[in-house]
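stuck on this one:
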Amino acid sequence: MLATLSIRDFVLIEKLDLDFAHGGGLGALTGETGAGKSILIDALGLALGARAESGAVRRGAAQASIAASFDLPRDHPARAILADQGFDGDDVLTLRRMIAADGRGRAFVNDQPASVALLRRLGDTLVEIQGQMEQHGLLDTVTHRGSLDAFAGLEKQASAVVSAWTTWRAARQACADAQATAEAARRDEEFLRHAVKELNALAPKADDEETLAGERQSMRAGSALGEAVSQALAELEQGRGAVASLRTAHRLIERNADKADGRLEAPLAALDRALSEATEAQAQLEMARDTLEFDPARLEKIEERLFALRALARKHNVAVAGLPALSEKLSAQLAALDDGEAGLKKLAAAAKTARAAYVAAAEALAASRRKGAAKLDKAVAAELGPLKLERAKFVTEVAALPEAEWSATGTDRVQFTVSTNPGAPPAPIAKIASGGELSRFLLALKVCLSKVGDAPTIVFDEVDSGIGGATAAAVGERLKRLAKDVQVLVVTHSPQVAAVADRHWLIRKTTTRTAASTDVVALDAQGRREEIARMLSGAEVTVEARAAADRLLATAN
């Protein structure tokens, strides 16, 4: 609910801090005509994102500032909006609006810069201002369907319709996409078949290019190494190679070693070692040659495939790594073309089934809405008589929509209408002629919908306009009832309404030769008695008026 309202330099208000922290229930704001009651409503509206009018800044001030703070329940929809916009969701939510004298303005949410649009979104969930000139809340036809559903307890049915609509929309889209794909495939059938044939012939893999390029490089390097090994073997083996020379030298020394009295033993041992190492080297080189054996045909095949893949990738303007995905896509298109008729029939059947399910759910919801509308009409009618609207008729219209206008909310339009004169056709509630009648209609409707809606605070601006006596008492009684469920603030000229309030504020205007200003004071019991007596008597508060005020207060309590 609204906890505080702080106003600085706004129109006639220099400084004002109103504390509603303990103001649950019904709060009344009264004062002389022209005292500035509408200024308070306008200030609150600015904090809630309303359009700033020229002249908002008090004369002589540089800027106006309005801040409204709200106690925010944990499950309140405003928290979801704050989270979606990246704002902290504290227990207290403060909306601030600053308007410079040149018309420029700034907005803040919990002291963080924000847009006026965000203030407006949050404000719609926090406060309903029901006044003669307001065009939102229950005057906005967009809210009527949700209000009726909440009143009649149709949330589950409405949710089922949303689900059925989502399923039908997805099925329709799948069918439309398949049709578009099939049509595109038919237009490009020749190209498609050729491209799929080419791709299937190559059967590209995602890592083909990397693998083939690596193998190609490895084979080229292996070819050079193989040549070097072969040349080395030739030096060891061919003609009088190193190995043959060592063998010959070894035989010559070995044959004559016994004649040398040991002088050839060392050379012979060295020749043994050299021959052994040379033989081992020859064997290792032969093994290396086998492993590095170069296959020109294999290299040719690798290069042929690599170049073919790259050429195909350039042709389709994709990377080589993207060819498998392209192949899958084009193959699917071709399959859709080949099997298109059967697939399209299956998707069309699924869409038809989904449509039938949606229509069944929506028609059931519409029937429930018509029953709920009759109950709401009866409940509102019971409230109209005491409000001096006994000749008026409230009708909740539930009208079927053409299929082009069907939506997740159903196949019907819900609108609150009013007929103020017998025999006159019902018209939208926002278009009834009398502002006073409008306010009382809104009050009656709101009493019936007291547990419907997210806004924990409702402001009524002069709901008692043009009435008095028993009718005003009836208005007060209904405001009191409504205030059991939500915080209600009412700007009133009616002593009967003021008398039933839980809290009472007096709006005063002070005028000097050079300036005028407005302030607000919270009234105690004695102050309330005097103010209600003034409202009863007029310019001079009489003993009789005070006595009448006492009777009103006693009756109210």
